[in-house]
């Protein structure tokens, strides 16, 4: 993966409503790369962010949930774009605990790196949602 290739993926974003183009690439522990872009919809809430497009889309290609070591994000907003709350929750289940989330500025000159815990302290975990019989 190169930053330039990630930036090129902005061209595939389907964002006729907001005009905000976002691209993401999720890299698993074996180095496999899965790209995603945001896809909007006339029924606005039916659209999906680039991060979740990348992660959910990886599953059919054989990727394993919980094994991602890096997630990179870029947009056309001329600054770094922080992932939304829903994406952070999904990322917390797809990423390894020591994974890096790397936010790139549109001009590729700035790069901010975060851990999952920094972006989503105390996210909902699989073991939290197992209902106990009452
Ligand atoms: N968007 C993303 O793809 N990722 C984010 O982290 C934040 C927002 C998209 C959703 C929508 O298509 C557009 O950006 C404007 O919110």
Automatic annotation (TrEMBL):
This enzyme scavenges exogenous and endogenous cytidine and 2'-deoxycytidine for UMP synthesis. It catalyses: cytidine + H2O + H(+) = uridine + NH4(+); 2'-deoxycytidine + H2O + H(+) = 2'-deoxyuridine + NH4(+). Residues 1-127 form the CMP/dCMP-type deaminase domain. It is an enzyme of class 3 (hydrolase). Keywords: Hydrolase, Metal-binding, Zinc. The keyword Kinase does not apply. GO terms for molecular function: cytidine deaminase activity. It comes from the Bacteria. Belongs to the cytidine and deoxycytidylate deaminase family. Its cofactor is Zn(2+). Its EC number is 3.5.4.5. Transmembrane segments: none annotated. It comes from Metamycoplasma gateae. PANTHER family: CYTIDINE DEAMINASE. NCBIfam families: cyt_deam_tetra, PRK05578.1. This is Cytidine deaminase. It holds the Pfam family dCMP_cyt_deam_1.
């Amino acid at each position: 993966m190169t930053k330039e290739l990630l930036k090129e993926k902005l061209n595939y974003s389907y964002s006729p409503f907001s005009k905000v183009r976002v691209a993401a690439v999720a890299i698993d522990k074996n180095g496999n790369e899965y790209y995603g872009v945001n896809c909007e919809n006339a029924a606005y809430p039916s659209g999906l962010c680039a991060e979740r497009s990348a992660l959910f889309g990886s599953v059919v290609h054989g990727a394993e949930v919980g094994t991602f070591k890096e997630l990179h994000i870029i947009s056309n907003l001329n600054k770094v774009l922080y992932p939304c709350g829903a994406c952070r929750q999904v990322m917390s289940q797809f990423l390894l605990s020591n994974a890096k989330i790397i936010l790139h500025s549109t001009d590729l000159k700035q790069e901010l790196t975060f851990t999952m815990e920094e972006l989503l302290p105390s996210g909902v975990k699989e073991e939290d949602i197992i209902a106990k019989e009452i």
